[in-house]
Amino acid sequence: MNWKGVFPAVTTKFHPDGSLDMDLFFKNLDFQLESGVHGIILGGTLGESSVLSQEEKITLTRETVKHINGKVPVILNIAEGATQDAVFWAKKAEELGASGLMILPPMRYAADAREVVTYFKAVANSTSLPMMIYNNPVDYKTLVTVDMFAELAECPNIQAIKESTRDISNVTRMINRFGDRFQILCGVDTLAMEELLMGAVGWVAGLVCAFPKETVAIYNLVQEGKIEEAREIYRWFLPLLELDIHPKLVQYIKLAEHHCGIGSEYVRAPRLTLIGEERERIEKIILDGIKNRPLL
């Protein structure tokens, strides 16, 4: 498993009646691949996993693996409250042909450090798939500390970290402690270039769903040491990237996909599509971004 590069946390596409729109989903996937992304992540927050049925998650995983056909890794996100459910999805992902897992700490219950470590180890020991720990204490209220990662290093298939603590120095902190034992991927769009410069090797991205070429260009330019060129694109991108750090990121990013012609704004309740002043404000950000899109 190569964790380096741009990994879109893709949205799930729906018809107006709420059913899965697989044709539109595949259209977006194809555009991601054509733009040079390095992997696909299913079932994250952007994927509206919490409102998908078990059958729909299985369908999305199976059909994505089939459609991608080995071109890039397909990663399934696990966000469960019960250890047995997390283990179920780890085994199911392996059965369906996924390449790896991204996993959050236990949902809903505020587990302590011992419980979180035990949870992650139980899932890791249930599968041969490589795993990425999603460390996001801001949104999910559980911090996976450096000392906790020292215990998790015992599991060889825990290989990567989606770094979403909002603390850029945590990249350096982890590298100082573990060297290259864990691959670090930035999980916050507005900090991506900064964390890539500090040693992160990948970007789990959100606005990539609508703007994959620009996202990949920033990543590639940083890798090539062309910092001025990357910074110019990043400065254009920032107002759009800030749509990723809002509770309505799903609605905002889906609206951006709609305006870019590679998605729709349909969401599942309790989410609702945007209206009124909020819609006008977000559309202006999106349309201004499209109008002023940099030449790559």
From TrEMBL:
Coiled coil: none annotated. One of its GO terms (molecular function) is 4-hydroxy-tetrahydrodipicolinate synthase activity. It comes from the Bacteria. Transmembrane segments: none annotated. Pyruvate binds at residue 204. The active site is at 134 (proton donor/acceptor), 162 (schiff-base intermediate with substrate). Keywords: Lyase. Belongs to the DapA family. This is Dihydrodipicolinate synthase family protein.
